[in-house]
Design a protein that fits this description.
cytoplasm; elongated; alpha/beta; five-stranded parallel sheet; DNA-binding transcription factor activity; Rossmann fold
């Protein structure tokens, strides 16, 4: 470690002599600086705080004792050595009472100076190590707390059994064995029977992936920043924040319900401030879905906030949507004529016309002004049309379709109707005419897919997940991937993981089991087998060689 030392004496040649002695000790200094009295020293301390101060006692303007007293009053943890030509007991007593670790008389004896200075350096070193250890401990406690809170939040939002009053969060934590843990203030305030709750889902728009400023491996840091921003804005309110463990692009925020206007619309200023602050500071776009206030914590909160978020498909992303607007009744007629034209285009394998009709059905102005229910009805009519044709032509559905494709769930994975149209189109092509290529920039798509794989290799990646992220049918994506890279998705993911494993084995002392987990393998034995298949030797043999 490096040391910062400040020498304070009103005699220039004394200061120079002390600096020379310090240099002769050959210690690792970040800097050695000089001040000619206590007041000048205080200004230098304020600008760049030293670790050790070597000072005279008697000086004009501000003497050494006054300097030490002024520093102690600031609370700074600095070490002092006094070098003085005065042997008065009063000075020595005051110095010792203020924690000075050495009081040397001029002329300075080399061995005394060396011994006291080394003692000061050792005290600085041990203090830094103690502070770093305490900081690591605090960080670990905070990380553990956040993981527990995240687990709790995802758990209660997936349960039909409501949690309220005394059962949330205290009762739930007791169920999980955290009865002895004192609740943080932001959770303790939840423990009230009259509480109403709101769930806010912050969705990182996938359009950010097309920005040069955004990289896939930044996603974790961005979510961390969003959570910090939310915590700062919610400093005086009960809240619970965690990642959505089902969607890497989302953060959940459960909080005490804010005010509403006479019409029932949520007017909580936190939501607007969160939206604008994230956009301004992180230079990304997000879409926010907000539930209605409920007096129970359960899956219903999540359903409402997610339904609000689904409005982005018809209204556009980078906005704030409320559950109240998601459950409006249907207001438009089913476009029977366009659906009939879609069926004919599919039967004729006229994929250009299929794309045009899908866009007209899902992105027309009438639908943008309609309700979420209208959008769902149109989507399901498109699926029924495709099912009818597949039945007539006896097409093999299970091998070609994502199961979620058959209901509205698949649509939740897209931010724009254009992406949903592309997903539907590639699914129809895969179903009706396997092997047919559409006019799209395949190289760019697969490049983005591979970049995402490299940044997220430790996650439980599947073709199904990536197909939704990049708006392409899973089978179509698999075909494109093999054509562009010459490898299957699974082989390429394994190669990326094995290269990372090699790097960790070479450059770190991490246990093999920890390396396996860190690159996406929960089964250590399976990791051993894959590593040996890839390189012909075991991980330990690779490390030892």
């Amino acid at each position: 470690m490096m040391y910062k030392v400040l020498v304070v004496d009103d005699e220039k040649w004394v200061r120079k002599g002390i600096v020379f002695k310090l240099q002769q000790l050959n210690m690792p200094y970040e800097w050695i600086r000089e001040a000619d009295d206590g007041r000048a020293a205080l200004e230098m301390i304020d600008a760049d705080c030293p670790d050790i101060i070597i000072t005279d006692v008697k000086m004009d303007d501000m003497d050494g004792i006054s300097l030490i007293r002024a520093v102690r009053e600031t609370g700074l943890d600095l070490r002092f050595m006094i070098i003085s030509g005065h042997a008065e007991f009063e000075y020595a007593e005051q110095a010792l009472n203020m924690g000075v670790m050495g009081y040397l008389l001029k002329p300075i004896k080399e061995e005394q100076f060396r011994a006291v200075f080394f003692k000061l350096c050792e005290d600085v070193r041990s203090s830094r190590e103690r502070q770093q250890s305490e900081a690591r401990h605090e960080m670990q406690i905070k990380k553990t707390r956040q993981l527990v809170e995240e687990k709790m939040l995802n758990h209660v939002l997936s349960q039909s059994r409501a949690q309220h009053g005394e059962t949330f969060p205290k009762g739930l934590l007791e169920e999980w064995g955290y009865a002895d843990a004192e609740l943080p203030e932001h959770l303790r305030q939840f423990d009230r029977a009259d509480m109403k709750y709101t769930l806010v889902i912050v969705h990182i728009d996938r359009s950010n992936y097309n920005s040069e400023r955004f990289h896939y491996d930044d996603l974790g840091l961005i979510k961390f920043a969003i959570k910090n921003i939310a915590e700062n804005l919610l400093a005086d309110r009960p809240f619970l924040i965690g990642n959505n463990l089902q969607d890497l692009n989302q953060v959940h925020i459960l909080l005490q319900a804010g005010p509403s206007d006479e019409s029932g619309l949520n007017t909580d200023p936190f939501i607007f401030r969160l939206f604008t602050t994230v956009t301004k500071l992180l230079k990304i776009t997000v879409t926010i879905g907000v539930s209605s206030p409920l007096d129970r914590v359960s899956e219903e909160l999540y359903k409402q906030a997610r339904a609000a978020l689904d409005l982005r498909l018809i209204k556009g992303n980078h906005n704030v949507f409320y559950a109240k607007d998601a459950f409006l009744s249907s207001r438009m007629e089913i476009p029977v004529e366009q659906l009939s034209l879609l069926g004919k285009a599919i039967e004729l394998s006229d994929f250009r016309n299929v794309e045009v009709i899908l866009s007209e059905l899902l992105a027309n102005k009438k639908l943008k002004d309609a309700s979420l229910l209208d959008f769902r009805l149109v989507y399901m009519e498109i699926i029924r049309t495709l099912m009818r044709i597949s039945s007539q032509q006896q097409l093999d559905l299970p091998d070609s379709l994502d199961f979620d494709f058959l209901n509205m769930d698949v649509a939740r994975h897209f931010d724009r109707t254009e992406d949903l149209v592309q997903y539907l189109l590639t699914t129809i092509v895969t179903l009706v005419k396997p092997g047919h290529s559409l006019p799209m920039d395949c190289s760019a798509i697969i490049h983005n897919v591979r970049s995402y794989m490299v940044a997220n290799y430790a996650e439980n990646l599947t073709v199904k997940e990536l197909s939704r992220k990049f708006a392409i049918n899973p089978n179509y994506l698999s075909t494109l991937f093999k054509a562009e890279t010459g490898e299957t998705f699974v082989k390429e993911l394994t190669r990326i993981r094995m290269e990372k494993a090699q790097q960790l084995l070479r450059l770190t002392g991490m246990p093999v089991s920890q390396i396996a987990t860190s690159i996406g393998y929960d089964d250590v034995q399976y990791f051993y087998r894959k590593f040996k298949q890839s390189f012909g030797i075991t991980p330990l043999e690779y490390r030892n060689n």
